[in-house]
Amino acid sequence: MEHTFSLRRDTAGNENTGLLKLIAIITMIIDHVGAAILTSRKYIFLRYIGRLAMPLFCWCMVVGACKSRNPYRYALRVLIVGIISQPFYMLALSHQWTELNVYATLFCGLCAIIGIREKKYFSHIWAPAAALLISHFVKMDYGTEGVLLIMGLYLARNRKWAIALVMCAMCIWWWVGDPFIYWLRIQAGDLKMSTGALHYYVNTIQACAIAALPLMLLPTFRSFRLPKWFGYAAYPGHLFILYLVDRFLL
């Protein structure tokens, strides 16, 4: 028997998730090409384009969580894809087992949404708190900021101005807050901070995610259906291809 929520399932934003996922996948691939293969400074524009991917994935997850008839099965699929993707994430982008891919962040954010919607045993309190704590202490792509973005977009889902406010607030943080935190860590003698990582944030690349906001808000009147299998296979698949290209063709 499928689980159903009693809460409303519609949102105020663009619910054409097939199109949004396709755009997110394309920009993600462009970003990872810039991160793994074309790493020269003259190709930095690829990383700017890639900033659209994460907020679009987050918004699609919010819409999916609202529409899904079985959110637990949805969360299980996200978890499985994350586990499958981890070796390819490590190979293609030079990460360790202790550095989890973005599906870990999406999974934490989805669990927070489920807890907020269910409100079982005060899950609307402890589920988002647990998601934030896990994303803080376990290193994962986008981490706490990604989980906060997912939660914020979910809470703002029924008002366009609220969605815009959440995105603007997060991008302002990426623009001002992250460089400031990195500066503080350098002053404290954190030797793990690399020049490349600091340069990345000082140039406010991540704040360019604000470019995804019009796509999240403005409706596209012709629905586009993206095969579910393609949406899930795209992440580990493109990472594997990038690894093969970098390993055997370059």
Brief overview, please?
By secondary structure, the protein is mostly helical. 69% of the residues lie in helices and 0% in strands. It has helices spanning 17-36, 45-50, 53-67, 71-93, 102-118, 123-137, 143-155, 160-187, 195-202, 213-217, 228-249.
Secondary-structure-based class equals mainly alpha
Strand content: under 5%
Q: Would you identify the regions where 5 or more consecutive residues have pLDDT less than 50?
A: 1-5
Find the count of extended strands (DSSP E, 2+ residues): 0
Main beta sheet, described? none
Radius of gyration: 18 Å
How many distinct helices?
11
Helix-strand sequence: HHHHHHHHHHH
- Tell the overall outline: globular
- Summarize the amount of helix as a percent range: 55-70%
Quaternary structure: single chain
C-alpha termini separation: 51 Å
Number of domains: 1
**Average pLDDT metric:** 89
Structural overview:
The protein contains eleven helices and no strands. It has helices spanning 17-36, 45-50, 53-67, 71-93, 102-118, 123-137, 143-155, 160-187, 195-202, 213-217, 228-249. Helix 3 runs parallel beside helix 5 and helix 4 packs antiparallel against helix 5.
Give structural attributes.
mainly alpha; 69% helix; disordered N terminus; 0% strand; 250 residues; globular
Explain the layout of strands and helices.
Layout (H helix, E strand, L loop, with lengths): L16 H20 L8 H6 L2 H15 L3 H23 L8 H17 L4 H15 L5 H13 L4 H28 L7 H8 L10 H5 L10 H22 L1
Helix pairs in contact: 1-3, 1-11, 3-5, 3-7, 4-5, 4-11, 5-6, 5-7, 6-7, 7-8
